[in-house]
Inverse folding.
């Protein structure tokens, strides 16, 4: 019986290639996909912190003063 060697190789790309790939991927994905991915990361941070209402978080909305323009 013949002994076989198993060879494993890892292909590494330069950081420039990776950055180019990422930019192209997200450019092709569009605004909605980028927003969805960003929001998913925000939700994950809340879950990691143990905050139960991670899914219910919203954008901060606060108003201090409203002044009518005169003119």
């Amino acid at each position: 019986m013949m002994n076989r060697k198993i060879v494993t190789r890892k292909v590494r790309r330069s950081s420039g290639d990776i950055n180019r790939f990422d930019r192209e991927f997200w450019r092709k994905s569009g605004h909605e996909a980028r927003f969805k991915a960003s929001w998913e990361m925000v939700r994950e941070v809340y879950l990691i912190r143990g905050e139960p209402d991670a899914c219910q978080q919203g954008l901060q909305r606060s108003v201090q003063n409203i002044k009518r323009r005169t003119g």
